[in-house]
Amino acid sequence: MLSGRSAAAIMEKVRRERPLIHHLTNYVTMADCAAITVSVGAVPVMAEAAEEVAEMVSAARAAVINTGTLSPSRVRAMHNLGLVAREKGLPVVFDPVGAGATRYRTEAILTLLRRLQPPLIKGNKAEIAFLGGLKEAKIRGIEALPSHLDPRQAARCLLEWLNYEAVVIVTGATDIVYAPGRSAQVSNGSAMLPLVVGSGCMAASVIASFAAVERDYFVAATAALAALGVAAELAGEKEGQQISGPAAFKINWLDTLFSLTVEQLEKGARIHQDRWR
To answer: CB count, 10 Å around CB of 173?
Structure first.
């Protein structure tokens, strides 16, 4: 059963084992992704040359592929990384940033998904819905615009199109983790999180860190989101400080995650698991 206690146990395992997490992420949030990986207790590496990503991911225990700043050379590197990770059975968190924004981006993402079959796919509701073929999805750049789409329906449609087993994570005010026959909601978080540039990219880093030590990726993703959300809530009220803006909040968030205790996560996690087909 998913709970704050199980999430805390995985967090402790990350801190104890310090897994290496290979990122092929975007230039905008690369430093923040490295920082949050360290804050949760794992070790980041950011190799991106197509000529070395296969060798680097072979030394890692999980990887993140993020399509935020695409180019032909980076797509080749993503392809090389993903094939080796799939061959070795390593967890890859695929973050289809901006899916639906342009034809080139969408076609590149769909091709990578078909070829690499990443076991974890994380995006906002519009990105996941667009990839699942739901034309009601609305996106502006990388920002999901309001819609009445059910995020679990979007996740299910994407898995039906992909036709392989995977865990889909849909981030939002309430985060959804979906796999066939299983669904979980994580309602932790802060109103400041959407204002932090790259908070979704940073979430992918923590999910990968948890998946590196927990082979049930559904459990790993749910636990990671709970840890991030509890840390965000505590960061917003850290020592009674008045948070002046997103930059100050981000620093508090990173530091709070670094010092997050087992007791704080056990007590604060709000996870609801159900069955949704």
So the answer is: 9
Name beta bridge partners: 23. Answer: 64
* Number of domains the chain is built from: 1
If one counts every other C-beta atom within 10 angstroms of the C-beta of residue 154, the result is 29
Residues in the chain predicted with pLDDT less than 50, given as ranges, are: 140-146, 239
Question: First vs last Cα of the chain: how many Å apart?
Answer: 19
pLDDT in tens, 191-204: 999 999 999 999 99
User: In which domain, by residue range, is 34 found?
Assistant: 4-274
CATH number of 226's domain? 3.40.1190.20
pTM score, whole prediction = 0.93
Three-state DSSP at 214 gives coil
Specify the residue for token string 């509701």: 125
Q: With contact defined as beta carbons under 8 Å apart, do 65 and 112 qualify?
A: yes
- The answer to whether the beta carbons of residues 44 and 205 sit under 8 Å apart is yes
